[in-house]
Amino acid sequence: MEISENVSKIKYAIRDILISAREVEKKGKKLYFFNIGDPNKYDFDTPQFLKDALVEAISVDKANYYSESIGDIELRTEIVRRQKRLWGTDLDLDKILVTAGVSEAISMISGSMAPGTEVLVPSPVYPSYLSYFTFHDIKGIEYKTQETLDWQPDVEDIRKKISPKTRAILIINPNNPTGAVYSPKKVKEITDVAGEHNLLVISDEIYDLLTYGGSYKSTASLTDVPVLELNGISKTLLSPGWRLGWANLRDEEDKYAQLWDAMSKQSRIRLCANSPIQKAVAKIINNNMDFLIGVNKKLKERATYFAKRINEMEGLSAQIPQGAFYSFPRIDLPIDDTDFILRVLKETGVVFVFGSGFGTLGKQHFRSVVLPEIRMMEEALNHVESFVRKLS
Fold it and tell me: How many Cα atoms sit within 13 Å of 377 on the Cβ side?
């Protein structure tokens, strides 16, 4: 059987590094995992009220049926309430599409665009975007973010990268992989550029409630231009394995009706997202989320500690993350980022992700989560520091 050439182009550095890590583990090396943004692999857990809601959905509500392909109406109604409550935005109930995590939403967006379409993406960028775009013959054109300015987007570079084939600008805020939180002023500048050039804004907001620095506002609350927002429960509700997300389109003039129709068609051929989980999330998504105060406090402490330790190592430097789970340190050593990560892995057992897997500006960087307890970070980073001394 002949295999699509596009499959061979798919890369996902975050999980690809695990292949090498398992080989190292077979040799008896203790591994320290700093690669995947899954809080439940550490000392975080899904809130009990969400677990209870799922049990109720399965047993009492008997929500074990196929739901509507576009999503359970109760959940979509609660998403409308959520966005109004948090950000003051008004959504159309029929312009919310429930997906198996944001990843499926990215796939549907990519599969709806004509081959050759260009989408401007921040660099460094979450690699799923580049891989899905490549798979569907869409071109992800990288625009700069400014490391010395806490990884804020370079709006002038966005302007320079717009071409006759550009159809959308992607914003990831709070940001994966850098841990940046884009200022509302910067986001407004990007949406203004989109408005000038009649472009759709795609806004990935999966970490919207996980901020501990900077000032965050949802993109659609800052502009009247069409915005396709992506969100879900994986991160803010500490439930990545539940695989529930959504896309919502705020498009008052119906400029993107064809795009929405194309995404909806794809939702029908995969039948529906998980019905019991939709029913459970509908019951709690507008609950009091005070548990996140403690979550963000822990994340801030760990992010600050991680950056401090990295900045004490000669040849490495890092900005202090302001949101999400990540840090994206720079490597100023006589070694490229891929070799650095593989050698760190083999010699210390610490599993980071090479920065070049996150696009052009990712080179000579690496991504780390800041999720582990500080005592585990200390042990792992002591090993990394000893390794770095040998390279300096």
Answer: 20
By CB atoms closer than 10 A (0-12, 13-18, 19+), residue 4 is: exposed
92-126: per-residue pLDDT in tens? 999 999 999 999 999 999 999 999 999 999 999 99
For residues 4 and 1, what is the distance between their CA atoms, to the nearest angstrom? 10
Pairing of strands 118-123, 139-146: parallel
Q: Which two tokens stand for residue 177?
A: 């992989």
As given in the structure block, the two tokens for residue 390 are: 């040998």
Query: Considering Cα of 312, then 337, then 26, then 128, what sign does the dihedral take?
Result: positive
Q: Tell me the two tokens of residue 70.
A: 């576009």
Question: Which pLDDT tens digit goes with each residue over 39-58?
Answer: 999 999 999 999 999 999 99
* Number of separate helices (H) and strands (E) present in the chain: 13, 15
Could you give the CA distance from residue 283 to residue 74 in angstroms, rounded to a whole number?
9
Q: At what angle do helices 291-311 and 374-391 cross, to 10 degrees?
A: 20
Whole-angstrom Cα distance, residue 234 to residue 38? 9
Computed from CA positions of residues 337, 340, 345, 346, in that sequence, does the dihedral angle turn out positive or negative? positive
| Residue 288, number of CB atoms within 10 A of its CB | 8
Q: Evaluate if pTM is beyond 0.85.
A: yes
Q: Position 376: which residue type? A: M
**What DSSP element (H or E) covers 86?**
helix 73-87
The domains found in the chain, sorted by start residue, are 5-45+290-391 (3.90.1150.10), 48-284 (3.40.640.10)
- Nearest Cα neighbor of 165 from 122, 198, 130, 116 is 116
CA angle 379, 385, 388 (to 5 degrees): 145
